[in-house]
Amino acid sequence: MAETASAIADPDDVLIVAGRRYGSRLLVGTGKYRDLTQTGEAIAAAGAEIVTVAIRRTNIGQDPDEPNLLDVVDPARFTILPNTAGCFTAEDAVRTCRLARELLDGHNLVKLEVLGDPKTLYPDMPATLAAAETLVADGFEVMVYCNDDPIAARRLEEIGCVAVMPLAAPIGSGLGIQNKYNILSIVENAGVPVLVDAGVGTASDAAVAMELGCDGVLMNTAIAEAKNPVLMASAMRHAVIAGRQAYLAGRMPRRRHASASSPLTDLPF
Prior knowledge:
The protein has helices at about 35-45, 90-105, 125-135, 150-160, 180-190, 205-210, 220-225, 230-250, and strands at about 15, 20, 25-30, 50-55, 80-85, 110, 140-145, 165, 195, 215-220.
C-alpha cells in the first residue's frame, strides 16, 4: 500500500471498503495529466491508496506497444480500481468489468458507472441498478457512481454494492458540493461507505464533503486540470484529513449572535 497520511488523529479511524483497510480517504483518478510521470507524482502527493482507472481509455496491458499506467502505479503498492467510464449501457459496463478482471488477474473490486447523458455525464440509474445486480451476482465488489437520490443509494446498498458514490455536481464541473442535504441524507442512512464522486473543484470542496460525514472523496479533474497538479494533489490530501478531523471533533453550533469567549458575569471586580 502507499504511504498513508501522517496527520490522522486516530490510526484506527480508517476507511474500510469490502473488508480492506485504507489510511487515506482520498481516491484519485489517472486521466487528463500531461504524461505518466506527472500522473505518478500527483498520486504520490495525494497520498492515495486507491487509484481508479478507466479501462476503456487507459492502457494497463491491453496494448503492449503503448505506455502502461502500471509502470507508474504499482499494483503492489496501490489498490487499482477499474471503472466503467464511457459506458452508456448496462451491458457495456458489465463487459468492461469482466475485461478488467481478466487484465488484473481476477481482481473483483470495481467502480461502476453507467452514464445517461454525454453532456452532463449524469448516471442512468435504471441501467446502473441493472448492471449492479448482474455484477454483484457475478462476484464483483461494486463501488457505484450514482445521483444524489437517497432512495437510489439505499437500493444499491440492498443489491450488495460495497460503497455508494453520489455526485456532488456534474463530472468535471468543479462546481463544488451543490447538494449538501441530499448527500447528508445518504450518509445518515447508509450502512456502507459513502464517497463523494464528481464535482469537487478545490480543497475547500473536499473538506466540506468530509465535514458532512462522507467516508471519502474521489477526484480526478480537480487535480489534473489545476495549474500545478502536484501541489493541488497535496492540498486535497490535507483538506480531506482536515475535513475528517473536523467531522469527528464536532463543530460548534451555529448562532445568530456572538457568544463572548470570556463571560462578563460574576467577575471579581
